[in-house]
Amino acid sequence: MPRLHLAENSPDSLTDWLIGTPLMILAIIVCAVALRWLVHRAIARVVKSMVSHGPRRPPSESPRAARVLRQAAGLDNERRAQRAETTGSVLRSVTSLVIYGIAALTIMAEVGVPLGPLLASAGVGGVALGFGAQSLVKDFLSGIFMIIEDQYGVGDVIDTGDMMGTVEEVSLRVTRVRDFEGVVWYLRNGEILRIGNRSQGWSTAMIDIPIAYDQPVDTAISALEQVAEEMDAAPEWHKLLLEPPAVGGVQSVAAGEINLRVTAKCVPMQQYGVTRELRRRAKDAFDAAGIKGPELPPYAKGPAA
């Protein structure tokens, strides 16, 4: 491509430069816009595919568990759509920056701007900025991987080790969490080393019910099995239980009491209500069967009459 030099002041050289360079710049701009459109269209198709195709059910997960999780927790819809849209937004921003950046450098080279000193200065400035903003870069990278890997999302109850609460907002830099006392915490994504998500997949309600040492264990276990069947048959609890509650039998034998364990697999964050209902039904069943609980120690009975 001909260049315009100060020594070349002939009409032909000037005409060639005025006609050739603007056309080349226009072609670069058109190619950059077209490439960006094609890349964004491909990203949009990938995002749409991520939203429309649900996650495969693990082989160990029963059809009932999959159905209950879909209906009660909504894992196949809003959560996946939110993660896919966020990932697509990040990819679109990154690809636009790269494509337009390359196009700008190409145009500058076409008009005769020396890129060597410019790139060297940009490299030194980038190193200085990287040292000064490395924590910010770390937060953004952690946020991107957190969203892509679906570690947690808005509405999840998470445990960071130092605090536990409900996620109210997720961004690339910080995560806003409100604990059970109403305090709002702002967690930098780069500083979160571990996360316990209490809202993904399923939860387990596990209770130990004590009876007196001299009570019939088989009768107590039969009563608990009846409680499990009745609770699983109740419509309001059937939709929360992924499978019928299981009576594990004798968990421990201590001085004066025997502990019987009952476990129930349920949808996330419903284990507390399931536990309370199991205890209530077990108490009623033991009263009906005449099974007594452990005797209170003398100091807990209060003063004698």
Give the assembly state of these chains.
Answer: single chain
Our count of domains comes out at 3
Return residue spans where pLDDT drops below 50 for at least 5 consecutive residues: 1-8
> What series of H and E elements makes up the topology?
HHHHHEEEEEEHHEEH
How many distinct beta strands?
8
Structural class by secondary-structure content: alpha+beta
- Count of separate DSSP helical elements: 8
What spatial form do the alpha-carbon principal axes imply? Answer: elongated
State the end-to-end CA separation: 111 Å
- Radius of gyration based on Cα positions: 33 Å
Mean pLDDT rating = 79
Helix content: 40-55%
Share of β-strand residues: 15-25%
* Major sheet summary line: 5 strands, antiparallel
Topology:
Elements: H1 11-52, H2 63-73, H3 78-110, H4 115-132, H5 134-148, E1 157-159, E2 164-170, E3 174-179, E4 184-188, E5 196-197, E6 203-212, H6 217-233, H7 235-238, E7 246-254, E8 257-266, H8 271-289
Antiparallel strand pairs: 1-2, 1-5, 2-3, 3-4, 6-8, 7-8
Describe what you observe in this structure:
This protein is α+β, with helices and mostly antiparallel strands. It folds into three domains: 11-113; 150-197, SH3 type barrels, CATH 2.30.30; 203-293, Alpha-Beta Plaits. Helices cover 52% and strands 17% of the residues. It has eight helices and eight strands; from the N terminus they run αααααββββββααββα. The protein has helices at 11-52, 63-73, 78-110, 115-132, 134-148, 217-233, 235-238, 271-289; strands spanning 157-159, 164-170, 174-179, 184-188, 196-197, 203-212, 246-254, 257-266. It has a five-stranded antiparallel sheet, with no helix packed on it. β7 (246-254) and β8 (257-266) form a beta hairpin. α1 (11-52) packs antiparallel against α3 and α6 crosses α8 (271-289). The radius of gyration is 33 Å and the shape is elongated.
